[in-house]
TrEMBL record:
Family annotation (SUPFAM superfamilies): Cytochrome P450
InterPro entries listed in its UniProt record: Cyt_P450, Cyt_P450_CS, Cyt_P450_E_grp-I, Cyt_P450_sf, Insect_CytP450_Detox
Species for this entry: Apolygus lucorum
Pfam family of the protein (one): p450
Protein name stated in the entry: Cytochrome P450
Family the UniProt entry places it in: Belongs to the cytochrome P450 family.
Length: 518
């Protein structure tokens, strides 16, 4: 017994000594840097809440970002690594775009041998990221998106048919649950090539697995925190971040799908088919006529940044990891945009009328909800942009300095410094967005201060699925506006409460509202 107590005391002393050592090291770092705003935010006191994003968006971290003004740049101790926050949009723009070469990585260390699904684009670093981004970019051109459009339309048909069956009962309808089912159906269909029957079915296998990813268990949380503060301990204990069953679920689908397509010659217009082409031929072909101006910009970035290319083997595990990130990155972000927008339109009937008038006018002109019709929906686009401003699904962005960097004011930060970009806070700053809490789609008719608005990030590492997401959201919203009127629910929500412990901004509980068939 005595030995056990002694061992426990020894273990606690080692941890305390380690944390104190880290703090001393970090405070020296900031003293040398001379940054104006520095605060310890972890692991002491109530600030723990901020780091875990329990109360976000008004988390301690977000409040810190506000307090940062007018200094525009500051730092905080977080016991893991020195972290710089940047609040000046011009500096944000530099990090994302002009000086991207210094901020290529997100700074998350992964071990794909133990966690194969972590070898995905969002987490890859350096040369591996460049290689994978160059390989995957052709999959997301507007030409390829047009091929997938028919699959997307089928999912929207099912979504509308399901709502038409549900709405006449006159009760509140949970728009969150419904949007989640819809966006999972789109991703499972377009990425995995599977009709997952998720619409109106919260018990579908896909819905259950996908939700698990965003409602981490206590064990997952403990593992995550261990990995953050003591990656060496995480590795020593050979821990895995994702539950084994989730990993098996995804890898098996990818393997079976590849096998089925290779042995039967079955083909489908989806990401899986393009990944199969990548596996077989080493690249995805893009015809000149499939590209548009944005695609050219993207490939220019790839070419100028391709100096240190690395070739990695495109095996089932690596390709499975990419499909996995399309699911993780693609369903909660798009569903929250759809339900936030329907909520905002239920509260702003004049904007709703204007958006519906535009949809009906363009439908009369094009005769159907075509890809080209969506491009002309400018007011609806502004409504989507405004929703992403008010409720950015990714409320803060992080990168790491990969090469020593000197800001224009002369502050030099060493390699390894973590960079935080307070996206939510910038989106709600009255200096860049007057009356920031109001839903005003017209503000996007004017140019926006560069660096102040970045729901999809920016620069060479901008969200690769941006165009896919916008087409999906626009198509769903155009069909919804054409068919239904959105009204506030009987239990009217004046203020949205966000999910605790979530990296993404998403509503806690449901989002009840009423819908009337037009
Ligand atoms: C409204 C919907 C979406 C939002 C707001 C969003 C937002 C973001 C943001 C902020 C980033 C980081 C960008 C940066 O570091 O500059 C990102 C990266 C990424 N997103 Fe999205 N996303 C959305 C939808 C999607 C969809 C539908 C997919 C896939 C089909 C997707 C796949 C990815 C991937 C793979 C990355 C990593 C890119 C890289 O590191 O090179 N996203 N997204």
């Amino acid at each position: 017994m005595a030995t056990l107590i002694e061992l426990a005391v020894l273990a606690v002393s080692i941890v305390v000594a380690y944390v104190v050592y880290k703090f001393i090291k970090l405070s020296n770092f900031f003293d040398n840097l001379g940054l104006p705003y520095i605060k310890p935010i972890w692991p002491f006191g109530s600030d723990v809440k901020g780091l875990l994003m329990r109360e976000h968006p008004a988390s301690t971290l977000t409040k810190l970002y506000y307090q940062l003004e007018p200094h525009k740049m500051g730092g905080f101790y977080n016991a893991v690594k020195p972290t710089i926050m940047i609040r000046d949009p011009e500096l944000v723009h530099r990090v994302y775009t002009t000086d991207f070469g210094h901020f290529v990585d997100r700074g998350v260390t992964t071990d794909p041998k133990r966690n194969p699904l972590e070898a995905h684009l969002f987490l890859l670093n350096g040369a591996k990221w460049r290689f994978m981004r160059a390989k995957l970019s052709p999959i997301f051109t507007s030409g390829k998106l047009k091929f997938m459009y028919a699959e997307m339309k089928k999912c929207v048909d099912t979504f509308i048919a399901h709502l038409e069956k549900t709405v006449p009962f006159g009760k509140d309808i949970d728009m969150k649950e419904n949007s989640v089912g819809f966006t999972i159906e789109v991703i499972s269909s377009c990425a995995f090539g599977i009709e997952s029957k998720s619409i109106g079915n919260p018990n579908s296998e896909f819905v259950l697995y996908s939700k698990k990813l965003f409602t981490p268990s206590t064990v997952m949380m403990i593992k995550g925190v261990t990995r953050l503060i003591a990656p060496w301990l995480f590795n020593l204990l050979r821990l895995k971040q994702l539950p084994k069953e989730t990993e098996d679920f995804v890898i098996n689908i990818v393997k079976q799908s590849f096998h089925h397509r290779l042995t039967t010659g079955y083909s489908r217009n989806d990401f899986m088919q393009l990944l199969l082409q990548l596996k077989e031929k080493g690249s995805v072909e893009v015809e000149e006529h499939e590209k548009d101006e944005e695609d050219h910009q993207e490939s220019r970035f790839q070419m100028t940044d391709s100096a240190e290319k690395e070739v990695i083997e495109l095996d089932d595990g690596l390709l499975g990891a990419q499909v996995f990130v399309f699911l993780v990155a693609g369903f909660e972000t798009t569903s929250s945009t759809i339900y936030h927008l329907t909520y905002l339109l239920s509260q702003n009937q004049d904007c709703q009328d204007k958006a519906r008038e535009e949809v009906n006018r363009l439908l009369a002109k094009h005769g159907d909800f075509t890809y080209d019709m969506l491009r002309e929906l400018t007011y609806l686009s502004n409504c989507i942009d405004e929703t992403l401003r008010l409720f950015p699904p990714v409320p803060f962005m992080f990168r790491v300095c990969t090469k020593e960097y000197t800001f224009p004011d002369g502050t030099t930060i060493p390699k390894g410094t973590a960079i935080n970009i307070p996206v939510y806070s910038l989106h709600h700053d009255p200096k860049y967005f007057p009356e920031p809490e109001k839903f005003k789609p017209e503000r996007f008719e004017q140019p926006i201060t560069r660096g102040a608005y970045s729901p999809f990030g920016d620069g060479p590492r901008i969200c690769i699925g941006k165009r896919f997401a916008l087409v999906e959201i626009k198509l769903a919203m155009a069909r919804l506006l054409h068919t239904f009127r959105f009204l506030p629910g009987s239990t009217k929500k004046d203020k949205i409460v966000f999910k605790p412990r979530s990296f993404l901004l998403a509503v806690e509980g449901g989002l009840p509202m009423k819908m009337e068939k037009i």
